[in-house]
Write the structure tokens for this entry.
Amino acid sequence: MQFKSSLGAWLGGALLGILFAIPVALAIVFGILYGQASSDLEQCRQPVTSTQSTLSTSSVPSGNSGPSTAAYTSEGPAINFTLRLPASIAPIHYELTLQVFLPFDQTEESLPNTFRTVGTVEITLKPTEDDVDRITLHARTQAPSGSGKISFSPSQVQLRMGWSQLPVDRVEFQPESDVVVIFPRDRLYNGTEYILTIRDYEGVIASDTEGLYRSSSERNGRRNWLAVAKFQPHKARRMLPCFDEPSFRSSFSVTVKHNSRFTTVRSNGAGGIGRPIGDGWTETRFSTTPSMPVYLLTILVSTFGQRTVNYQQMRNSTISILGVEDMLLKHGNVTFSLQQSEKALEWMDDRFQQPYFNFMSKLDQAALPDFPAGATEDWGLVLYREANLLYEPGVTSADNKRAIAGVIAHELSHMVFGNLLTCKWWSDTWMNEGFARFLQYEILHDTNRQWGLNALVPYLSTQVAMQLDAYDTAHALYNPNVETIPQIENMFGTLSYAKGGSILRMMKGVMGSAFYGALRRYVARFRFQNVEHDDLLTVLSEEPISVGFPATNKHIDFNSHMKTWIVSNGYPVITLRRVGPGPRDITFEQKRFLLRAGNSSAHAGVDKTRTWHIPLVLSYGSSGIDSVGAPGWDYGYGADKLCWITKATGRLLSECPGEWGSYVSWPPLPPSDNSSTNFIIANPGQTGMYRVNYDRENWRRIALYLNAGPDGHRMMYEVTRGQLIDDAFNLARTGDFDISYEVVFDLMRYLPYEMQYGPFATAMDNMRYLDQMLRSTVNYGNLTEYMRNLFDLKYPEFGPINSTRWSSSVWSDDQNGYEQGSYTTLQFNNVVLDNACYYEQAECLNDATSKFKQWKLANRSLSLPYEYSTENAAYVTNFPQTRNMILCYGIRASENATEDWMFLNSMHDRETTPAARASILRALACSKEGSLLQRLLQKTLDGTVREQDSNSIFFYMTRWHLGEQLSWNFLRQNWGRLTRRSSIVADVTASFNTRQQLEEVREFRTSLGPDVAEIPAFEKAIDKILANIEWMDESVDDVVSQLKIQYKNFPIA
């Protein structure tokens, strides 16, 4: 079936049918779900799913009898059904023309051929081997209803060399692996260019936010449609036949034919000026892109508004932000996002000497109502979820503002690491994503120094990576066995981002100022190429590093030192014990860190003897010494101040060079002298991704130092305070080291005096694990008593309800563009408020419920800007910074629980900003009423929240014990109706710690069959449940004993 190319015919041809189907049309006009419409439209055409079909060959050029569709037998060439494409053919250039049949609004949804495409692609190819007998490429020709796919017959496939047509014998469709194999009659010559054409293939504009998909916005009760393509990592095959692997780089020339009412049509290349072609259609052509992988290709068909600035005042170099016009207006004409974009691009251009506008003439960034990821780095047209790009002064919270700037920095760092250089295969995904995570913090630190983010990098990234990598089910940064689609998706988990960024941060710490010089050479050497991690390590090893006084140059063999960090999962813990008075009179022992690794059956057969090359740096502490545990510069230390620990056990005296330790004045450290306060701290500033354990005496002295009065802890670098708490908590949690929870709680006695976000949040995050383990037991009261005692001391610092911390703290721009208030202070306040109310500290709950009542009485949208009431200057009618706490605990402690919940639920549909809607969903999950929580869970299915937001409901729900139980039951009952289920499995089972729960998870996994894509998620969940069970068996008594003792030991402020 061919679609009509005339828009008038497309619109008019359906008119008669519509007249005879008025009830159906009215149903669509008045809001039929687009998923239902898609299901009906799906029946318009049956895809080509069988290689046995008899297909027309009428369009085959003269002289070609037409390619056969017969399946191969033993007499024919063997077909390889692997998901990887052979490297015998290299694409060079794509010419793509795509006609998009997209309804303009909801009144056109019932037209024939709606949400369809017709495309023609010409791919210039070059064999890389002699006598190539086939062309193998990707095309998704079979898919569930509503999902993207394409279809074509063998008669639509043509091959030529120059102007000469070449006969094609066979076309084989392999829908189970998304592959099409084309067999030319004659073999292809190495180095000769050929052009493969697939004409008038048909496609689907999907409803599942993958590939080329549909999205919409609403204005004045009318749904307005748009279409956008998101391909990373393997979904380009849903829109066009292509070589859908990152190693196949090509240039692209794109033409889009579309309804002329869609005024904002974009792709990667510049241009985008439409040419009317008649009957209400417009043809929009775009300039040719640089050479890039097909996953970076995208198109956008919309009526978006646009805001543009000239980059560094260059006339032909523009940065634009596209989005729903009402949203651009509401969000201050996206001034903040444009400023952050220009800052990030300037930083990247200056640091790597590869100016973006040397390769592209424009940078568009689109804010999309529906987007399955946070953002995607498509070259020239970067795609974002609205909440990750749009900032509104007075409405967006401090944390969301920081996150927006971070996502922009992350995506624009991909313009080099990911686009200009691309990982060769997804086994090295971290080469793209780890670099972007590392650089986003580098960019934010250098371009927004007043935010104070540098001290938070270990908390935001390194500690996250170590938590994820503490199980044997974690994947290595480099996994040579990545082949299947679930394996590819798994490589895009948080671990690749956080651990990859942390390893790069560690290498920067080792190299000091030489690090960026090496990266510049790396980029210059491999630009427009695909890379593997060995390429990076080789370049870093070549870089001379200046050490010592006078300076001499040396090289570090990163291929040797860093290999285990990259090719193996896990990370080490090093235990240091003092055996003498000098800086090297210390023994060491390294081993793999695994949570509950002792006797757990979950770790049977795990290699616990693996060793890493650990870049060890020591810091000295003693009473009266300031800045203890601070790194030597910025957050690195340089190659002359570290010792590489390569063995499992040994003594620093024999392992470290003679001059090592001479940079610090080391007084004696007698192991058994309890009168001494001297101590050592390794890995200052948590620059290395490893944990550190000490002998008991050293731990005791660190605790004494931290607890030496109200100001004692301030003498120690704040990152190191958080690092010590995190290490101690996790070492005790394993049960595999000579450290008890007594050490942990001794370290935390000073917390009533802690005023820095990073270390305090680290302590609360680790206490949350104890909360998860104990909340369903009779011992939970001991934990709540301990925490309430802490916040009885901590919360009064905040003063009465009208204090600035509760009501008027915002982090918005003043009229001169400067932030008001400190980001880290506001975040610290939030951690205190959230935890104080969570543990039902009386004053906190009273203040929260009072604020909630005031807001409810005002009946004011959260999407309206922050402002003062005219009646009382101290009373704020909107509170972007503290609204999560006020709404959550206002609901949780409400005297009219059902009425307030229903009011808040109705407000959800009124809000216009994603952040405000997210705050309400989070608050609805705070209810203590099971029936209300069940209603909230139904929102994941009934279309009242966007698909991209529905999974967050499970995350919010499982914060509470009742919500966890209800979510688990709901997941099992509605498995087939939910999407992105791997994250739901992780969230719902995170607190499971009983053998009954373990058996339930195992039984449910088995019931789904052996081929379900979420098997890796279940394996990780089961590993964590086993660890939790072992913790309950072996550590709960120690924790409860300490809670009973330590809750009385906080200092009285």
Summary: Residues 1015-1034 form the longest helix (20 residues).
